[in-house]
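Bug #77: duplicate submission created two jobs. Keeping one. Sequence:
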Amino acid sequence: MMKRLALVGLICAMLFMAFACRGKTAPQVKKESPKPIAKGLVSGPNLASRYQPPDVPVLANFAYMPQNSVVYINGNVRTAIIKYVGSARTEDIINFYKIQLPKNGWMEQISSASKQVMLFRKGREKCQIDINQSASGGLETYLTVKICYYGIDLP
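Kept job's structure:
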């Protein structure tokens, strides 16, 4: 008799649970909304004091000017304005980069009318090299190497 009573109680409990839970859904786990994707470049640590792009060589007699340079790297995205000072003729600098950058995977783009600006492309990056002779008639030549994603212009 006890076994039957326990069996009836179990069946009643199961029926009660079935009818009580009917129409109700299981509790939902609250989903966090996805974080917005950052637009543009996300800046990383400033590396200007020690960064030399491995794929953009510099003439041996040019000195790196870290105090005038800005470099940001985040993963494989790099944005850089790197300045150098040295002594060389504009033609020699142009010839150097026309030979060296293709060796490092850069392709020369259509050059500007000015001989003092060179533009190269490598995948999704571009490299612009600005050559400025000293206006005072001195022997100093200033190089600015700008690296960024293609489609972005740096000052």
